[in-house]
Design a protein that fits this description.
single chain, 2 domains, about 10% strand, about 110 residues, 2 strands, mainly alpha
Length: about 110
């Protein structure tokens, strides 16, 4: 989520330079409920000590209203189409969610 937040911040800055208004907060979908709860919780645990710097960054952007984390089921994660091999039905479902069209099928 920290890498996605960094990319979002970069895109916001590019759009601001182009004088395009950006509606905040930006939704970041995550299929890991534990990661969402750790990002939202101000308490550090023993298991989170090795990535505290990332958490400070992420929590700062959440509290500033730049991003908003949203839980999504693993089967409905649109990013899977770019990162995983999918069966035909799940692939077609994600294509529709992304509003993509087959230019060769026209």
């Amino acid at each position: 989520m920290c890498a996605a937040t960094s990319e979002v911040l970069w895109l916001i800055n590019v759009l601001k330079e182009l004088h395009i208004n950006v509606m905040l907060p930006i939704d970041i979908f995550c299929d890991n409920n534990t990661a969402i709860s750790i990002a939202a919780s101000p308490i550090f645990h023993d298991r989170t000590k090795h990535f505290e710097i990332d958490l400070f960054f992420l929590r700062e952007k959440i509290s500033a209203g730049v991003i908003k984390t949203i839980s999504i089921e693993s089967g409905n994660q649109p990013a899977d189409i770019f990162t995983k091999g999918l069966d035909v039905y799940q692939h077609d479902s994600l294509i529709k969610k992304l509003n993509m069209h087959d230019v060769f099928g026209l």
